[in-house]
Design goal:
The complex is a heterodimer of chains A (145) and B (411). Chain A is built from three helices and seven strands. With 145 residues, chain A is of the alpha/beta class. Chain A has a five-stranded mixed beta sheet with strand order 1-2-5-4-3, covered by helices on one side. A two-stranded parallel sheet of chain A has the order 6-7. The chains are: A alpha/beta (145), B mainly alpha (411).
């Protein structure tokens, strides 16, 4: 099982990703949206990152970003970030790799306005059904007032 | 017979918090479940971005009335990681102590709820009576029964005295004796076994695939516990077993939680025996340097994850919280498939969804400026308050009922 340094080296070597291991058991890396699914799948198969703990959505101005937090049995958490343009924030679904991810992806859509390609139909989460669809509360330019 | 869809919730007598389940049935058999969550969404993550680091600590503690310490500690750990703060060992031990007491209160609460959901209210009365012991300890150590407010960024707010530790150990001895009795009941009482065994099954493969965590996962042989796998606070310095079970059903989830209670007693004794001397906190900066961190905390219901990013100002750029219930709800739909409608309440309760269960009787301590109210006076105070503040005249309702009594007299 990989520690943080080994995971960082693996990501840099295998995918040419920018990676950092700021402390024990924590790795942060950035990958292009096009290779996100491939990295998630290979990290699961080869390194044992078999649990998707959460997906964090971020508004970074020109682009929106999603961070996929993956965990393995030995405590290392790999946070894989991918950026998409604000004008067309589209990401592929990962529910076929991690079936528990559906609610995390619905949250990206509801709160930040990501478009998740291939997400199975279902009720929205977490906002109410009658909340305006074009209002995305976690975007930095949104205000309750 | 064609399938029928029955809505359960968002307000329903069998569920104590708002969640909506559409259950498709063929006779008594469940064909499928769709859920609607989010009724408790309060926009806390957005609110955090508009408040200071310290204000956020207290806001995040109020995400949940049961595992409040889990959320405030996870947030503190993330911020301390970003700011490179070295929290003193004594503070780490006190945080761990409160965390384990919180686990005991939460698991005993669950035991009572589980008893109630299967019609064994005697178990609920016993478990909740015993739970008062640990609530008293939490009040003794922190001043509060829930939302303890013991954490500060960089340490803890209050010290623990030798007398308090003695009281903790005495109460733990009593609770251990009680929990050993519940283990005996769970192992030998046939009604409990018959009602829970085989109900809400979740195979190990499904638990892994659907990302089940905490006691829900461990009762399906998923051997994961953040306290051991990703040690934080003082967990690297105490010995404990991670309890797993092969039953893969509600019975297994009961045995896992009971086993975890016994481990918590052992952890607390180790912490008390080795509580290091020293300061309680280090000074935290008002502006947290730019950076990001992921903190994980094994809450009573499973792993609680906080992601925090700072842009170097007085307020966080982003706070993301993933509470354990969200990770476990995907498993609930699987547990209910092909099972009976009557099992729905206990199967949902068995993942221990987070209830906002903070109600309690009001008791005012007799001191200067305080008065003590009897129940009748408290009731009258409530009626008067609503009449004054909201223009609500409950006496009018009484008069109307007296003028037009319901057929057959009062109920």
């Amino acid at each position: 099982m990989p520690d943080a340094a080994a995971t960082k080296a693996w990501l840099e070597e295998r995918f040419g990703a920018q990676a950092a291991a700021p402390r024990a058991r924590r790795v942060f890396a950035e990958v292009p949206a096009g290779s996100l699914r491939a990295v998630l799948e290979v990290a699961r198969e080869e390194l044992g990152f078999d649990a998707l703990c959460a997906i964090t959505g971020l508004d970074e101005g020109e682009s929106l970003a999603a961070i996929y937090h993956l965990a393995c049995a030995h405590g290392t958490v790999l946070s894989l970030k991918t950026r998409v343009p604000r004008a067309s924030p589209s990401l592929p679904t990962v529910t076929d790799l991690f079936p528990g991810a559906a609610d995390y992806e619905r949250e990206l859509d509801d709160l930040l306005g990501f478009h998740i390609e291939g997400l199975p139909p279902g009720r929205r989460y977490p906002l109410p059904e009658d909340f305006p669809r074009d209002q995305k509360p976690l975007r930095k330019d949104w205000s309750a007032r | 017979m064609s399938p029928v869809t029955i809505p359960v919730g968002p307000q329903h007598p069998a569920l104590k918090e708002p969640e909506s389940f559409d259950i498709t049935l063929e006779g008594e058999r469940i064909l499928g479940v769709t859920m609607r969550l989010g009724y408790n969404h309060r926009g806390i993550e957005k609110a955090c971005e508009a408040r200071s680091w310290v204000q956020d600590l207290f806001l995040l503690e109020r995400i949940c009335g049961i595992c409040s310490h889990a959320h405030s500690t996870a947030f503190c750990m993330a911020v301390e990681d970003i700011a490179s703060l070295q929290v003193p060992p004594r503070a780490q031990f006190i945080r761990t102590l409160v965390g384990e007491l919180e686990r005991i209160h939460s698991h005993l609460l669950w035991l009572g709820v589980a008893g109630h959901e299967i019609g064994l209210d005697t178990l609920m009365m016993y478990a909740w009576r015993d739970r008062e012991t640990v609530m008293d300890l939490l009040a003794l150590l922190t001043g509060n029964r829930v939302n303890y407010g013991i954490n500060l960024i960089g340490g803890v707010r209050r010290d623990v005295s030798a007398e308090q530790l003695e009281q903790v150990l005495r109460s733990i001895d009593f609770l251990e004796q009680r929990v050993r009795y519940y283990v005996e009941v769970a192992r030998t009482e046939s009604t409990l076994h018959q009602r829970l065994a085989g109900v809400g099954p979740l195979s190990m493969d499904d638990a892994r695939r659907l990302g089940a965590i905490g006691p829900t996962g461990r009762a399906s042989m998923v051997d994961r516990d953040t306290r051991r796998d990703d040690p934080y606070l003082a967990y690297g310095e105490v010995q404990f077993k991670v309890i797993t079970d092969w039953h893969c059903d509600v019975y297994g989830r009961t045995l896992v939680r009971l086993g975890e209670l016994l481990e918590s007693f052992s952890i607390i004794r180790q912490l008390a025996a080795r509580l290091p001397a020293g300061p309680l906190k280090v000074k935290a900066p008002r502006k947290v340097p730019a950076g990001q961190a992921v903190a994980r905390y094994e809450a009573p219901r499973g792993e609680d994850l906080h992601f925090v990013r700072s842009n170097g100002t007085e307020r966080p750029e982003r706070v993301k919280v993933r509470a354990p219930t969200l990770a476990n709800l995907a498993s609930v739909a699987k547990m209910l498939e092909n099972h009976r409608l009557a099992d729905v309440p206990i199967v949902i309760a068995a993942i221990d969804p987070c209830f906002s269960c903070t109600d309690r009787a009001v008791r005012l301590a007799r001191s200067a400026g305080c008065e003590r109210l009897s129940w009748a006076e408290l009731r009258q105070h409530g009626i008067d308050w609503y009449r004054r503040e909201a223009g609500l005249d409950l006496a009018a309702l009484d008069r109307r009922l007296a003028a037009h009594p319901p057929p057959g007299g009062p109920p």
